[in-house]
């Protein structure tokens, strides 16, 4: 006797479970263009630095802009709460692990100062960088107009999970079509992981979406609330929504895989899965230039009621140049990310990111272990 089915569960895949199939045609890596587009803005590399206080300061965003990428500044972080954020960063880093969450909650209870928002954006603009800034949905109505007036170029509206249909008893939720109509700069929203949610977000008129719930090294969302989808499957589903929306409207929405990326191989797999760009936190936190001094924590770490992150010691492994462009002596894929992407594009015959979307991918649970007995024995 067969039992009734209450719920069907499908298999979902992360970076370590899939592999890219080489193309039938190959090209020299120097022929591959890694450009990424968000609204009217074109970037040389498809890499964004996460809006984490230990990763992106105004100074770090300026450095990354000069190297072709995008640093997204958290407008609800330390840089808009404190005149001297460096001393606050030091107090976080020096806190014992069992007390750091309490320290977070106290430090991030300090009110956001509107004049510091203007100062941060002006610092970004003064260097010629694209001013990309991040706020949460609940503060968008208040802080968004201030950021736009100060000269922000791209507005990221981020929460752990974002939908186009949020309900609340206590306040009127953010209405994305209204925000898009009122805001004259590109808007990127997130985070999401599913086809239908992504498609509904795109239909509000936004310019980009962030994909990923809980994959970051400093994030504990998946452990705390059990919510999330592995990044390869999540990206494929959201990329399918982008293609559906493009067929409906002719408008192309940028898909950005946010979190869980440790190596050049992970980044390449995200792009083959359909991402137009990737957002990275911890690898940037490991750079000499990062403000966190070899530590990192997530945006939800200071939550006053249900913190979903922790402060992690990630160490310092090299410069921003080494991380993005090399040269490197590391053989584990954690440096020269742009070089890795160009080589993978060459192997797949991809002249640009959209060509890379056409590459074949296979389920390959043994991809990291097959034939690697001597490498594994040294671990």
Describe this structure in words.
- The structure is a single chain.
- Helix content is 35%, strand content 14%.
- By secondary structure, it is α/β, with parallel strands linked by helices.
- The chain starts with 17 loop residues before the first strand and ends with a helix.
- It has 15 helices and 14 strands.
- The strands form 4 sheets. The chain has an 8-stranded parallel barrel with strand order 4-5-6-7-8-9-10-11, surrounded by 5 helices. The chain has a two-stranded antiparallel ribbon with strand order 1-14.
- The longest helix has 19 residues.
- Helix 7 links the parallel strand 8 and strand 9.
Mean pLDDT: 93
Tally of distinct domains: 1
Distance between the termini: 49 Å
What gyration radius follows from the Cα positions, in whole Å?
Answer: 20 Å
Task: Strand order, main sheet: write it out.
Answer: 4-5-6-7-8-9-10-11
Order of helices and strands: EEEEHEHHHEHEHEHEHHEHEHEEHHHEH
Main sheet summary: 8 strands, parallel, barrel
CATH hierarchy: architecture: Alpha-Beta Barrel
**Strand tally:** 14
The level of helicity is 25-40%
The CATH homologous superfamily: Aldolase class I
Look up the CATH topology.
Answer: TIM Barrel
Low-confidence region ranges = none
- Outline, from the CA principal axes? globular
Share of residues in strands:
5-15%
Assign the CATH class: Alpha Beta
**Helix/strand/pairing class, anyone?**
alpha/beta
- Tally of individual helices: 15
In short:
The N and C termini lie far apart (49 Å). With 379 residues, the protein is α/β, with parallel strands linked by helices. The protein has a single domain (43-316), classed as Aldolase class I (TIM Barrel).
